[in-house]
Write a structure and sequence with these properties.
membrane; elongated; 2 domains; transmembrane helix; mainly alpha; transmembrane
Length: 87
């Protein structure tokens, strides 16, 4: 018996299609929504910073002062509760 060599025919068109689809188109389709999302996120952050910059500084300082007073009040009430629990 004689053994025959099997020669595999390679279809280069199918390989090229595979390479185009999986190495070019798929990464684009996956990365495109991520790039769009990050772009919109950056635009929103920049827009927010621009609006914050346009705020009157007195309003911003009053807001900070009110928050500081609230934190002081919470700290004092916590200390009072702590003192009462020790008594």
């Amino acid at each position: 018996m004689r053994k025959e060599l099997i020669i595999w025919e390679v279809d280069f068109k199918k390989i090229n299609q595979f390479l185009i689809v999986y190495l070019v188109l798929l990464p684009i389709l996956v990365l495109l929504p991520i790039i769009i999302f990050l772009g919109l996120l950056i635009c929103g952050l920049v827009n927010g910073l621009i609006r914050l910059h346009k705020l009157d500084f007195k309003v911003a300082l009053n807001y900070i002062y009110l928050n500081k007073n609230l934190l002081d009040f919470l700290h004092i009430t916590y200390k009072i509760k702590e003192i009462k629990s020790k008594m």
